[in-house]
Structure formats: structure tokens, C-alpha cells
Amino acid sequence: MKIKFSLLFYLLFGQLAAQTFEKTYHINSDKNYIHNVWIDDQLNSYFTIKNGGQSYDSLYFTSQPFFLKIDVMGNQQMVKQIVPSSLDSNFIDSINHLDIQITIDNGNGFDLYGSIRKSFPYDFNGIHLKTNYNFDVLDKHYFVTKQDSSIFIKDFFVKNDTLTFFGSLSAYNNGIDFGHLFQVYQDSLIYEKSLFNDRDSIYTSNIFHALKDKNGHYYTFSDGYFGPPNFFLTFMQINKLDSNFQPIQKQIISLPSKPFPNDSSIVTYATDVSWVTDSTFIIAYALYDNIDTKKGDVHLFLYDTSLKQLNYKRINSIDTNQQSIGNSLVYDSISGYYYFGTTQSLKKFKYSNPFNTEDPTAFRLIKFDKNLNVKWEKVYYNQNTIQLENLTSDKNGNITMAGTLEDSVARQNGDRYIYVLRVDSLGNYIRSNINERKNIDKYVAFYPNPFKESINLLKLNYFVPYKVEIVDALGRSVYQCNWSNDKMNISTRHWQSGMYFYIVKDSYGNTTSGKLLKLK
To answer: Which is it for strands 149-159 and 247-253: parallel, antiparallel or unpaired?
Structure first.
């Protein structure tokens, strides 16, 4: 019977578990940021990585993109960098900024879209590169030129070989971002429009996401300005446009805990959106300061195409701060669930990212259904500083979390590495190092410590049942339980103040222990 059970377990979970991994890739670059991740049918993963460094003229941050390919087990297959001088012998790599922002699989390779600083100091061009699957450049085209403004592309739609790009222009003279759209046909610009103008009473800043419904209406998600006379009052807004890009409707998004105009704390770079049905969509968001709690909770909104809010859920974070970034919400068609990921820290982020703080951080992954009901939450702790930048699902229902990592060596050298964690639909992954599996102190957390009224227990990385016992300074047991859920709260109201000790054991006999302090 034991053999039959083992065989059944392998048939059900063996293949899925074999595709999970945790890997770090040491690419010779500094300020990495993952723009895109694409996974093919063989579960090879392709990463488009921005690498930024300030140019010597101090006018712009140069960005020479890297491309990384890994196989199903996370083994590095290829890493390549495209520099401006490889595209044009007149380009100088330290000046001619190249930023690839959109990656599209065309069946024979990739179409890469972005911007390039074509001439010094201010001229920028939209650029299209055709490559094979090894990112060798086969052809290049320029489709728009802008003076005094850099080009950012965030989302796109394709119809009859016409590409519609939504993004922004960043003005050199004042640093203000203005929402913008381009339409391109066969690498020629056929239409463009500013989404910051008085005529249409539309004042978008950075457009980070866009959706298109079955009726040809567009929905842009952006930071925006209130318009005259309150230009400097910014907020997150949805603008609904018709098929000719004329505004139909605008909706302000704010947190119910402190609604607009008293609070404009929602920032679009921290949001992501996804369709639920043909007429409803989800907005997911987390930021490190909720105003009312000073913590980083997760906020889920459900809207319909009339821009009416249908549902809202706040997932509290009682102990930590966290922040999300765009590309952190995915729908898994295998399970029919949504996944939303954030970067989580026990300390407040100093800026919009957790780096240069020497604080270890974690990935937090939430699985929920179309009605915003949470199925589970998992936390994946790393002893280094990590930032989640992209979430992707594959054909087997695995979830790939990708971002950047900074350890003490990288921090001293000004470097950051690429960090990838792939988990299965249960949120688990298999560690390749058997000694790491035995070292379960990485997998549990007790907080706060010291404590007063209660103490929280949280599983990290390894979501299996544990036995927990807590004893006082004299060795007397004050608490015992079988711990099955991912997190648990223990009331300590009637405990005496002083030192306590915990012992945690898994089903394989691996143990960890530590000290706890109860305050008066």
C-alpha cells in the first residue's frame, strides 16, 4: 500500500515539483530591473532586463538592456547584452541610451520595442528591433522622433498589423511626465496623441497599464492631475476612451480608508490590472504606507466597464510593510485563480524600493478567485534584499516570481543580481540542497519579539505541518500544538513576563529553536 501511495504521489505531484526552483544569476550590471518575462511551451524562460547607470552628462540614465534565457530547471542557457554601438557605429554606449520596454514573441523570435537616445543631447526615437530567440538583432527600425522628451512604452494592442502603444513622454526641461499614445503600422507612425491636453480635459501623467474591451474602448490606468486650477493635486485615475481615443469617462481611484481628495496615496507604478470577464476587471495594489496604519496592506478592487466599483477587499498586514510593482498580477487559466505578488519587509521602505537598506526582504504571494476571496497567502523569505518585479504563469500552472537581489557583496560593489523563484500551484518549491531542507530555522518566524499580548507564527518558504512547543525559563511547557495553517496567532495575555523558549519540529524530525521575551 505504501508503494502504491508513493507512486500515486509521484504521478500527481512529481512532475510539477520538478519544475520549481530558486536561482540567482550574477549578471555583470548594476541597477537591474526586469521589464518582461516570457515562458515558452518547453518552459524555457526569457527575461528582458533593464540595466541603468547615469551617463557622464548627467542628463539621463543610460540603459543598455540584457537578455537572459533559462531552462525548465532554472539553468542559465544564455545571457546577452545589446548596446547602441552594435546597432550603429556612430552611437556611443555611454551616451546613446537604449531601453527595451516591450517584448513580443512572433513565432520566429522576438519583436522588441522601446526608445533610444539617437542624438546628443535631447533627441529620442522609438525603436523596433527584430531578433531570433537568442536575441541576435536581425533588423532595426525607428518609428518616431521626439525632441526634448524621452519615450516610455508601457502597454500595447495589435490589430491588423497596427500596434497601439500607451505610455508617456518625459520632458527634459521640467521632468514632468505626460501620457501619450502612438499607433504604428509597418514601422511607420500613423497616429499619435497626447493624453494631457485642455481640449479633452484629460491630464494623465505616467500611463502604466491599459485594457481594451470587445467594443474597442480603451481604459488607461495612470497617475494624473486634477486639472485647472489644481494641477499639482495628483491621483490615480482610469480614463475610458472610445475607439478614436476620445475621452468618454474618468474615474478616480482612492483607498476607502481615506478617500480622495483627502488622500491621493495610490501610485500607479505599484498597481496592476487584469480582465475578469468581458465587462469586469481587477485592480491590485500595495504600497508601504497606508496612511491610516502606516503598514503596507494589499488592496483589491473589482470594477466594471462603466467604471463602477463592484467589490473591494483589503488584506491586512499586521506586522510588515510591503509594496507592489506593475506586472505583479497574473491569471492562471489552469486553476482559474489570480495571483498577486508584493515585496515585503519588516521595516519601512525608505524610498520606492528596499535596496541600500541592508534589510532582508521577502516575496509575498496571494492566490484569490474572481470574487476576491483569498485561497492562500505565502511568504518566501530571503536573507538578502530582494524586490519582486515580474509575475508570470506557465502552461502547467506554475508561478514564476522574478526580480533583483542585493547582498552585502553586491551592495559594496554597486551591483544587483537577478533572482528567480518558481513555485507550484500550492505555493511550494523544492530546494535542491538537502542541507537547506534540514535547516528549518529559515522556514518559521515568531513576531513580534519581544511581545506582550500575543505572538504570531509565520511559515516561510516551506509549507508543511509542524509541531510547536513553548516552554518557560524553568522548562515547563506553556503551549503545544500541531501547526497546519501557514500563519497562527497565540494569545499570551495570561503568561508571566520573562524569557521563553520555542521548539519547532517537522514530520522528518528536523527541529529549530529560539528565545522569546514577554514584556510586562
So the answer is: unpaired
Question: Residue 138 corresponds to which cell in the numbers above?
Answer: 536581425
Closest to 287 in 3D by CA, of 308, 264, 312, 261? 264
For residues 165 and 180, the answer to whether their CB atoms sit within 8 Å is no
Range list of H helices, 321-387: none
Q: How distant is the alpha carbon of residue 401 from its chain centre?
A: 8
Contacts of 434 (CB under 8 A, 6+ apart): none
Give whole-number Cα distances, 121 to 55, 60, 116, 117, 204, in Å.
11, 9, 12, 8, 26
If DSSP codes are grouped into helix, strand and coil, which group holds residue 191?
strand
pTM of the predicted structure, to 2 decimals:
0.82
Give the start-to-end residue ranges of the domains of the chain: 443-518
Rounded Cα distance between 107 and 133, Å, is: 9
Q: Dump pLDDT digits (tens) for 323-353.
A: 777 779 999 998 999 999 988 876 665 556 7
How many other C-beta atoms are found inside a 10 Å radius of the C-beta of residue 24?
16
Bridge partners, 191 (sequence order) = 183
Amino acid symbol at 95: I
What does the pLDDT read at residue 203? Answer: 85
Task: Say yes or no: domain 443-518 is CATH 2.60.40.1930.
Answer: yes
Query: How confident is the model at residue 12, as a pLDDT?
Result: 43
Q: Pairing mode, if any, of strands 466-472 and 477-483? A: antiparallel
Single-letter residue type at 355: F
Find out whether 243 and 230 touch, Cβ atoms under 8 Å: no
